[in-house]
Design a protein that fits this description.
The structure holds 2 protein chains of 2 kinds. Chain A is α/β, with parallel strands linked by helices. Chain A has 16 helices and 11 strands. In chain B, helix 1 (7-16) crosses helix 2. The chains are: A alpha/beta, B mainly alpha.
Chain lengths: 488, 101
């Protein structure tokens, strides 16, 4: 039997805790600049194997660290994330820093502004180390669609980290950053969090401003944190959440202290378990791990009861129609005129558009643009796009009915643990089915957390997905904390 | 729904999307689209005649936000924006001459 682990390597490292690091900095036991340099050294050592970072923003990070050290030297109060090293998914723009979205079409692009989440993290004292690898325009579930090569899973370098925010998840899992930002359109934070054994949060649609996010599907896109534990992820969300005049869909509801909320015991919460998420196709070891997580919730004083989400199986086709239709419109802006790549074969305007786009986009992006354009084209709009929007309402209503009976719903985040590189790349449909447990919550606009919930016998992480209703983040964090505390 | 996507359909859609596909890409894309659309046709099992399309989830939880006042605010620096253009004279984006269309 061939050794399956011959070149596999474990590069995972227990992530650091935000509060402990911050205490070291506020008590002057450690300088923010030394901490940043330590992280850069670790990135230099591990990134060649992992390919988690696409570019580093060293100058900006060290300038920010120097500001924090100056505050400390003066004895001034430090902000919440003072000196904490972060990684930023490359679909989020930082002024003057390369922002590729994992695509060749944006190679060399230096955006003239900062995303709102970037501004908010830096205002809270965070050190932004660099930009992380991802599937091109966040389209993928394995990070293999990046134009800059795949990311490797720190738990087994022969396996994928998940996607599309694979670089951010891997960076936290390998302690190349204490926390990271990713984006989630159909599972792109939660699924890589589960594959890499870290916490990942998809906030409610509109909870976090999308200004400065290179758009994939605007009615679905969310920005959210990765961290090594639930409390840290909650802390980061409280910093990046809130209304922003630059994003008309951002919500005015007050931002809660999610970390404090996560300290509340889960006792008395009603937990729904949908049978549809434990059916055919679920890996036995994933099922067993998630069932241990459910037992832990019961032991923590939660009431566990079945809920029914009978239309779940229609979510993946609905998602792929809506997401590709919106993507086909959003990606029309990449035309070789204002920024990004322009083909040398640009004799006429029309040739410039089509050659720039053909040479600049990868195969999966083209496939989705074609599918989306087809679904929106004359004669097909009613049958495809409008139909999908109707089913979207059925799916959302189904969740809201369930949330009338329970406070949170728990499921596996992914039907399988991290798969091997190359295992699904030849079959787009099988890759789409990797999102089967995450896309429904995306369509409904509700929030969700993926929390580590044990490992398989081979040592691969398993994630439990905790879903809560619109603006129910505090509840999701409480439940996730209880699962985490059980130490499964 | 679930009609076969032909090679001609792919070429027509690629034209609409301003994508110049390589000749060998066209049949592959048509196969992929047919496989995906066959799966998507499962949605036909659902009677949605009386279901209103859900365009934005913000309507579900009554947390829609009002529009900001329509007032002028400083925008991006022109020089910083134009620097990113593949071709520019500093004030305008330059493109190849428009013939045919």
């Amino acid at each position: 039997m061939a050794s399956v682990t011959k070149s596999a390597e474990i590069l995972a490292e227990k992530p650091k805790e935000l509060a402990a690091l911050r205490a070291e900095i506020t008590e002057s036991r450690r300088k923010a600049s030394e901490l940043a340099s330590e992280y850069y050294r670790r990135i230099e050592r591990k990134n060649p194997q992992l390919n988690a970072f696409l570019s580093l923003t060293r100058e900006r990070a060290l300038a920010q660290a120097a500001r924090i050290d100056a505050l400390t030297a003066r004895g001034d109060p430090l902000p919440l994330l003072a000196g904490i090293p972060f990684a930023i998914k490359d679909v989020l723009v930082m002024r003057g820093a390369a922002s590729t979205a994992g695509s060749k079409i944006l190679q060399g692009y230096r955006p003239p502004y900062d995303a709102t989440v970037v501004t908010r993290l830096e205002s809270a004292g965070a050190i932004l180390l660099g930009k992380t690898n991802c599937d091109e325009f966040a389209m993928g579930s394995s990070n293999e669609n990046s134009a800059y090569g795949p990311v490797r899973n720190p738990w087994d370098t022969e396996r994928v980290p998940g996607g599309s925010s694979g670089g951010s998840a891997a960076a936290v899992a390998a302690n190349l950053a204490v926390a990271a930002l990713g984006t989630d359109t159909g599972g792109s934070i939660r699924q890589p969090a589960s594959f890499c054994g870290v916490v990942g949060v998809m906030p409610t649609y509109g909870r976090v401003s999308r200004y400065g996010l290179i758009a994939f599907a605007s009615s679905l896109d969310r920005i959210g944190p990765f961290a090594g534990n639930v409390r840290d992820a909650a802390t980061v969300l409280s910093v990046i959440a809130g209304h922003d005049p630059c994003d008309a869909t951002s919500l005015r509801a007050p931002v809660e202290d999610y970390a404090a909320a996560s300290d509340q015991p889960a006792e008395g919460l009603r937990i729904g378990v949908p049978g549809e998420y434990f059916a055919e196709g679920l890996d036995d070891e994933v099922r067993a791990a998630v069932e241990r997580g459910i037992a832990a919730l019961r032991a923590a004083g939660c009431t566990v009861k079945p809920v029914h989400l009978p239309h779940t199986r229609y979510a993946v086709p609905t998602y792929y129609l809506i997401a590709t239709a919106e993507a086909s419109a959003n990606l029309a802006r990449f035309d070789g005129v204002r920024y990004g790549y322009r083909s040398p074969r640009s004799e006429t305007l029309s040739a410039m558009y089509s050659h720039s786009r053909d040479e600049g986009f990868g195969a999966e992006v083209k496939r989705r643009i074609l599918l989306g354009t087809y679904a929106l084209s004359a004669g097909y709009y009613e049958a495809y796009y409008r139909k999908a929007q109707q089913v979207r309402r059925i799916l959302a209503d189904e969740f809201l009915r369930a949330f009338a009976q329970v406070d949170a719903i728990v499921t596996p985040t992914s039907p399988v643990p991290a798969f091997k590189l190359g295992e699904k790349t030849d079959d787009p449909l099988s890759m789409y089915l990797a999102d089967i447990y995450t896309v429904t919550a995306s369509l409904a606009g509700i929030c969700g957390v993926s929390v580590p919930c044990g490992t398989t016998r081979a040592g691969l992480p398993v994630g439990m997905q905790v879903l809560a209703t619109h603006l129910g983040e505090s509840t999701a964090f409480r439940v996730a904390r209880a699962v985490e505390a059980a130490g499964i | 729904m679930a009609e076969k996507v032909t090679v001609e359909d792919v070429e027509r859609v690629a034209e609409l999307a301003r994508l110049k596909l390589a000749p060998d890409e066209v049949p592959r894309m048509s196969n992929d689209l047919n496989a995906i659309l066959a799966y998507i046709s499962e949605l036909n099992e659902l009677d949605t005649a009386r279901v209103a399309p859900l365009e934005q989830v913000s309507e579900l939880a009554d947390f829609s936000s009002e529009l900001r006042p329509d007032v002028l605010v400083p925008s991006l620096e022109r020089a910083e924006v134009m620097r990113e253009a593949p071709e520019s004279d500093g004030s305008f984006f330059k493109v190849p001459k428009v013939i045919e269309r």
